[in-house]
Amino acid sequence: MKEVLINHMYSGDYLERGNIGHEVINLFKRDNENHYIYAMSAGDYDTKRHLNTIKKVILVRNVDQYKAEILGIADVEEEIFASEVANPNTYIMLPSVKDLVENDFMNPNNPDGSPKDAKIIQRIKIYKNVHEAQKKYIDTHLVTYGDVSLYELFENNNTAKSGHSIYLTFKAANFRRPKELLYLCDNRYDNKANDPHYFILKNKTTMCGTCVAAYESLDDSEIQRLIQSPYWEEKDNSPKVDIKNISIKSTSLLNIIKKNNDEITYSNWIAYYLKNDKELLKRFITHFTKNEKIKETSFEDVEVIRESKNNIDIYYEDSKSIFVFENKIKSSINGTKKKDGKTEEENDFSQLEKYYTFAEKEAEKATPKKQTGYYLLLPNYAYKDTSRLNKYSKFDKYEIKRYSQLLEFFKENSCNLPYYSDFLKALEYHASEYLNDLYSEMLERLQSVISLRK
């Protein structure tokens, strides 16, 4: 059977912990023009099932749960990793990063000093042998990127000292990038417009889940349509690594302190500017609450409160209005539980209903009742299918505002308060259409490592 490996890049906690993903090489030529591919997630694969069957590799990065953007396609010229495994028909794949790092898998001894099971020790020897064979291949074939040996690029990773790392899975031929945006989708995606740039795998139920490597038959009709489509560049136009020419986003303050996904930090930052710049506050409220139901508000007796009002992220109140802003980045909508006497028609109770009920009661204390508005702040990559949120009671009362809308607003409205440019840079991270915009971060880390070795 001939197969295609679908390689999902730039995902997982390993990258979010500050490591350089080994897949960073996949979109670059090495210094002497050859092209290599690193297979997710650890560089190895199940040689018992897939030895000599993988003929092509499709590189993708996740867009949402249904689809992934196609970054490139390559023919497999040489199975480097498999050739270094002494007995590929019995090979057991590397354990998880947690086992390798936190549980010290590569240590032949248990925490109490006693030797591990003989089968585990044998696996450790196999991994070490492959690791050494990889380094020898890199040295023999001068596999360098930016004049730095491939394995030296990853010496600061938290798995670098364990002696198991794999660096090269395949030598590639005929690598090509798409000329236009192309997407690989699972069978849940409804291509109503029949856009030929979308390739739907009828037998695949989940495109973007926990699995970062998937296999499809080379004979699949959609795979063949993809391969033969006119959307590919004519040759391998991938660049070599040149740190002077790497196009990257400048690092944000939150990226440096590892707070990119901290909702409290973002809510505090937004509230700080709104509370301390009255003109910015007026423009913000006017811009984001404008619809046919909301009349012009007073901006008199204004309060902007962070989390002290019934744990609402950002609570705005003046003499005529109450507006609730709930910020969600990594965490899900919490507090969900079954109501007493729940019927099939009722929805799950959640924090959205809790905030709605509280704000409505507060609004009713005024005569006439204050107008209310409810807004859910979401990254562009999150909950693209908002129908999944319908199960939460009162979700229908909330308007979704994306981080790209926040970014656009704050860019168009200047502020002289401190760290405003850093704030804008931080918003960019969640204005991305991807689950994790880690590609730019990988390039930054790569640039840093190479610069230190010059």
Topology (SSEs and partners):
Elements: E1 3-8, H1 13-16, E2 35-37, H2 47-50, E3 54-62, E4 67-79, H3 80-83, H4 97-102, H5 118-140, E5 144-145, E6 148-149, E7 170-176, E8 183-185, E9 198-200, E10 213-217, H6 221-227, H7 253-256, H8 263-276, H9 278-288, E11 303-305, E12 314-317, E13 321-327, H10 351-363, E14 371-378, E15 398-402, H11 403-412, H12 420-430, H13 438-452
Parallel strand pairs: 1-3, 8-9, 13-14, 14-15
Antiparallel strand pairs: 1-10, 2-7, 3-4, 4-7, 4-8, 5-6, 11-12, 12-13
The sequence of SSEs as H and E is EHEHEEHHHEEEEEEHHHHEEEHEEHHH
**Largest β sheet strand count, sense and barrel closure:** 8 strands, mixed
Task: Give the N-to-C terminal Cα separation.
Answer: 46 Å
Total count of helical runs of at least 4 residues: 13
Helix content: 25-40%
SSE class? alpha/beta
Q: Which ranges are low-confidence, i.e. pLDDT below 50, for 5 or more consecutive residues?
A: 342-347
How many β-strand runs? 15
Overall pLDDT metric: 88
> Using only CA atoms, what is the Rg?
26 Å
Number of structurally distinct domains = 2
The fraction of residues in strands falls at 15-25%
Gross morphology: elongated
